Amino acid sequence: MLPTPTPPHPDRPRPTRVIAVPGATAAHPGHERATLGWIAAQVARVLDLPFDGFADALPAPRSDAFLVPQNTLDADEAARWGLQNEAELLGGVVPAPFVASKVITHALVDADAAAPTGWNAGLGAQLQAVTVPGFSVFARDDLLRAATILLASAHAVRIKLADGIGGGGQYVARDLEACRQHLATLTPADLDAGVVVEVDMAQPATYSVGEMRLGGRRIAYVGTQGLGRDRQGRPVYGGSTLSVVRGGLSDLLDVFRQPRLRRTVEMAITYDRCAQAAYPQLQCSRRNYDVLWGSDAHGRALGGVLEQSWRVGGATPAELAAFDLLDREPGIARVLASSVERHGPVQVPPQAEVYCVLDDPRCGLITKFRHAGADPGAPSVFEAFDGSTSLHA
User: Fold this and answer.
1) Which of 196, 239, 258, 293 has the most CB atoms in a 10 Å sphere around its CB?
2) pTM, two decimal places
């Protein structure tokens, strides 16, 4: 549930332009920057405002800008732009950088464990019923203690950097010695930012539950993630397929009645409400929660929220396609929208819209496209719990 929007400050002008705010990976030419610029231009079209380019090309922040940041902004960054509430950006604002990372999903290993300033000690306990078993750690000894506890009942643990995306920055350890070896590769900066230690799940499948607010309108969705292969043949994020309706997260409960899908939505809603209550300063116009289903060491089904994303992401082009279709076609109640990312040569379906084709200096040729149409409501798209569709966010 979103907080009540703060009324605009009388000295802040209404947005007259849209500006993209790149993070580190979009600070140089490449597919991340191209995609961010394309998303910002689409947002500008929806808001009927001009797209004024990238923030790093401006001499100073502008107080009349609607922002499309690549990353979730912290309070200091938002203040530099004069942002007052979530209606002035597509993304989110958090009180401290760690709040936007994976680490808020879990509790500390015990009350004496290291934690950053501003840490809410109660949130992890509140989220235990809707998350995969795990801990967040900020010190070497705490990581080993967390792994020891989890390995007592799990076949393996997954160690994840706080800011890893697309399955990056992760390591699976099957015993404590493997944890020690991986711990030796972590830098002090890695531990300061936080590391998540979770039970590793068999046959994993990742689902997304999200909501986007833009220009006074709102959509919500349940979706699945797919895998692609990079030019070295390694699995990478390959896109998302979303079933989208008008409204917010709670409206999804009226649409997705299959038991496991309903539970997926309920877990995302609980995570959203608990995080908002724990960090009241949180303001978001785009909320996305990755929910993992798989099986534990005993073969029992296990599900839980992995992390939040309060920023534009890989599914945002599909979200915007659905938003546009629902706006243009009031008779359509539900939209099936997809965004696809492929490395190397690819044949794009004729009904798709290409939004990025680039020979990226780091990853080679990459093509991104999207398409959207009326959703017939077939549940099979979201009930194929296929382990090949997960990177463990």
Assistant:
1) 196
2) 0.91
